[in-house]
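Reviewer 2 asked us to include a model.

Predict the structure of this chain.
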Amino acid sequence: MSKEQVPRLCLGPIKIGFPVVQASLSGYSDWPMRVIARRLGAPYTITGAMLDRFVLNVSKGRKARRFIRVTDQQHPCGGQLIGSAAEELAAAALKMVEAGFDVIDLNFACPVKKVLGKRRGGYLLSRPETALEIVARVRNAVPSHVPVTVKMRRGTDDGQHSRDNFFAIFDGAFRLGAAAITVHGRTVRQRYKGSSSWEFLREVKQHAGDRTVLGSGDLFAAQDCLDMMAQTGMDGVTVARGAIGNPWIFQQVRALAAGRSISPPSLCDQREVLAEHYRLAEETYGPQRCCRLMRKFGIKYSRLHPQPAHVRDAFVAVRDPSQWQEVLDKWYAE
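Predicted model (structure tokens):
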């Protein structure tokens, strides 16, 4: 897919531009990760799924600054909500808008067992009436200039009833005013196993016509993003696990689309981003909490290092800020 063929993405009135964005990643896409992604080429990022009741009950203190945080360098950005009660989701969406989020994204996709057990996330794909009531309530609650988008999987399973429910929610959400829908090519039952069905994504986009649809699933390299758009006709793609520890994927896909070659980030580049990611996390969480949280990111970043196993083990062993710096000094020396 050449630069001329890459579509320009819009979410309602908001012009995103380059159509490769960072997906919502529960436990990962916090403020520091979203800032890093934006700096390295992501035109739009989304928070991890936030429970409606948490958003409604969180104080205005440190916890609010950690999770419900938008800064000037982030716009446009989306806040993803998860829940089961339309009224609470609508109230939480309004609070997210007041906090500065440009887009409200509704999660009808999460396949985690405890989420399904509370009738949230992917469970709602089996309850079209409830899902559409949520879309309607949220759309009516937030200002008209704020786009409401939806994240779905291709169904709860591969049965015909599940397929019928998918399209009932898909068409109904657009009818109720959704600006765009992201479709992950796996079922809820699959969770993260097996392959994402790009053939289903192609079918969905053909069905959608000029309505905005984004694809998700199995985007682990820059070329994957261009391939998905070329093979499915999607208006854009959302990079999820492929962006954890590899925020350079957004720069790389822009380069490929422009006809330029790409190469892995140098150790110097990796060191700079790791240090900055840590600094932003420390600003957000404080020194001790930050160190624990950043271990999981370090483990993911290690995959790009020439000696990934050794670097991974070094990050696993980190217990305090000085040890984090020691890993950088030893393994990422210029």
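Residues 267-285 form the longest helix (19 residues). The first strand starts at residue 9 and ends at 11. We have added this to the supplementary material.
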